[in-house]
Each structure stands twice: as C-alpha cells, then as structure tokens.
C-alpha cells in the first residue's frame, strides 16, 4: 500500500512539473523550433534523396561501362583468335602455293618438254582429231614433192641476190652518214624462214637484221625484264636501251645526282660534259627528255639513211627501190622493168651485250610486237640462236629427216586456211616453236623420212594441247636444256618461262578466232592436200580421190 501511494505522488509531481503553463517563458518557442527542425529535416531528406539518385546513376553508369569493357575485351579476344586462325590459313595457303610453284618450276625444267616420250600421253590429246584422218604417206610424199619442193627451188638464188644488194646498200649508207654523229651500222645477217629453209608461201621475203651502235664516246646499256629490274607482266620479253657515255657507268656519275658547289668540279667530267641538252639526246635517237633509245626515232633515221644511200648507188642498178611499208624501218621492194618484184626486210637491231640476242624495233608482217608498251621498249629476238639450233640438231638426225617437211606442210596449210577464213592470232612463229620443242623432246631416229605422218600428227596434237591450255612457252627463255654448244646466255635460261599465248588470255575474241581457224584447218586438211596433189594410182591412195595440179 505505501508503495502504491508513493507511485501516485510521484506521478502527480511529474505532471505538475511538465505542464506547459508551469514555465511559460522558457517553453514559449517550442512550437516554432519544432517546425524549423521539421523543415530542415525535410530539406535534408530531399538532399539525401537526390544524392542517393546521383549515386545510383553513377553506379549504373559504372556498371554499363564495365559491361562494355567486358564485351569489348570479349570481342578483342575473339578477333585475336579469328586473326590467329586467319594467319594460320594464310600461312598454310602460302605454303601450298609455294609447293605448287616449286612443283611447276621443276615440271617445266624437267618434264615440260618431254611431250613426245609417251604414247599414252598423246592418246588423251587430240580431241579435235576425232573423225579427222590424215592422208597416207604416199599422198603426203607426193604433196610435199610437187607442192613444197617445187616452189622453193629459187630461194637460194634469191637469198644470194638480196644479200649482195643489201651489203652494197649498207656500204653506201655508211658513206653518207656522219661518222662523228650518226649511228654506226654493221654487216647484216639473214634470219627467219628463208634462211632456215622452211618458207613455202609466196611471195618469198628475206629478213635481214642490221646491228648498229652509237657514235663515240657513247654506248648502249641494255636492260631486260629478267635482269633484276621490275617489269610488269605485260612487258615480259621486252627491254630498254639506255644511251650512256663510255666514260661513265650505266647509273651515271655522282655529279649527275648531287649539286656540287660553285667552287667544286667533278674530277671525271667537265662542266660541259656533265650537262646534256635534250637536243643532243634527241640527235642520239632518244625519246624526248630521256636517255632511252626510241624505236620510232630509229625508224625515221634508218629510212632517211637508206633513201640517201640508194640515191648514191641507184645509177648502178636497172631497177627501182621503194618502201613497201611506212610503219617498218626497212620493208623494201625491188621493182624490175619486167614487172617482177622482190621484197625484203632490212631491220635495225641492237646487240644484247656480247651475245647473239638482239633488241628489234619492229616485226614486219608479224603480230609479235602488235602491242608494244611504248616506243622505248624493244622486243628481244632469238632468231640467230633458233637458226643455229636447227642446224645443230639437223646434224644428228637421219638423212632426209622430216622435221623441216613437217613445218613446211603445216605452214602451207595454215596459210591456205587463213586465206579462206581470214588471219588469226596463230602465226608461223608459233608453229616453229612447236617444232623446236619436239626436236628437243623426240629422239633422233623418230625424225626419219618415213615417219613424216606420225611427226605431223605430233605437232598438231601438241599445238592443240597448247591452244586448249593457252600456254605455248618460248623455246629458249626458261629452258635449262639448251645445248651448251650454242653459247646461249645463262640469264635467259634461268628466267621464268615466257608464255607466247599470254596475250590471248584476256583477248578472248582473238583466241576464239585462233582456235576456230585451227579446227577448221584440221577439217580441211585432207581436202587442201588433195587439191594440190597430182594424181596417184588408186592402189596407192586407198581410194582417196585426187585431182591434177
């Protein structure tokens, strides 16, 4: 009970003390301070809310950035893996390409000319020969004797006459030229079908090349596509000829490349010799503002020189001399008073170093140089080595070998076909190249006269294979089996083989025309041979009808 009373008294006392009217002055501002505190608390709450939103946005941005970085890292890692895989495939492809290239070079060096060794290889060729039968040996022999030999009997006399007149004309040319300023002309040489004894188509035209050299103190520096300089693919087979002074190397003295001071002089060249005006180089038949020999300038100079030379000696001869082609430097024609004429080509050339390879400016009656890159690019001719190779091989063949006969027959048939259907990209030089390859591939006994028909088939099948593959390699360039007796320059033996059919790869119209002409020739071959063959008894012709010549 006392405890209860004590609690009641304590509660009363506490109520009295905490009553607001008990201390009116001290507690009069309590309501106002409470509202201010509440307002501050609200402001603080709002600021904390904004700060929380800002922090949440920053955290979200950081998380997005982190995810982007992680994604970028994954992409980079995947790209690295893809690059590694791509590099692996690239390296593997390069290795395969190199292996194929090495195999191709080995094949070209060792087997690309062994086309006549296996009869099985020849059996898979000659698709165009299906249904085409060559005339038998008796018909071919009669055709060759009456049509080929009957038209080539006067070639020796014609060669002798043309060579004698050409020597006289060149001697007169030397006399009218200025020895101190004009080019020095050497003796001419006969090349081509007339001098290899396989030309059959009339008119007979002798091809003569005339080497020339610059006057002292100048010399020629020749650069070929395989001499280490960079030549594009369409300039393979060509070269340039730079005119240099004999007292300097081909790259020129350093005084030509460095500006010397006014008080300094070159010990090798004087001030006069170090400067070359453009007029001086043009007098040396160079292209404008260059030191490279210009084929067009050479052609103009040679035509003018030949005209002057003929004017000096024309009184000695009872015929007229004229140019048959103005776009060729020396396409000449002799006209007799009787109306007969003799044509021959006198073409200026530049010797390559000390070899019998020559830079030739123009090819008369030929499409070999139809697309010359520029007038400073000269085509290389190996005609002298081709003639020597045929002469060298002929010494090892049986008597009356049929190699020349095959080329003559094909040349005749091709010419007749072109007269019927028009010219094509296929030339006699392509036929000759086929023969050169077969001469090297076939053993000597295979060229006996009684094997004319078989070798003729080999040439046609090999030519068909080349047309199908669009590949006919130059015989000398890239051929490591050239006989050492010829003294052929090693730089051309080690060069990449030159495809003579390369221009037809992009020119499909000419290629199509060439293939069509070849197939048409195959179909018309028997008819063409029979047309120019004298009558042979039926027993010898196996029932083939013959017409008199």
UniProtKB/TrEMBL annotation:
SMART domains in alphabetical order: Mab-21 (SM01265)
Keyword Transcription regulation attached: no
Coiled-coil spans in chain: 38-72
Compartments where located: Cell membrane; Nucleus outer membrane
Keywords tagged on the record: Cell membrane, Coiled coil, Glycoprotein, Membrane, Nucleus, Signal, Transmembrane, Transmembrane helix
Pfam families (alphabetical): Mab-21_C
Signal peptide: 1-20
Membrane protein topology class: Single-pass type I membrane protein
Molecular function GO terms recorded: protein kinase inhibitor activity
UniProt GO cellular component terms: nuclear outer membrane; plasma membrane
Location, primary (coarse class): membrane
InterPro entries: ITPRIP-like, Mab-21_HhH/H2TH-like, MAB21L/cGLR
Record-annotated Mab-21-like HhH/H2TH-like domain positions: 404-477
Family the entry assigns: Belongs to the ITPRIP family.
Function field: Enhances Ca(2+)-mediated inhibition of inositol 1,4,5-triphosphate receptor (ITPR) Ca(2+) release.
Protein name per Swiss-Prot or TrEMBL: Inositol 1,4,5-trisphosphate receptor-interacting protein
Organism, as annotated: Molothrus ater (Brown-headed cowbird)
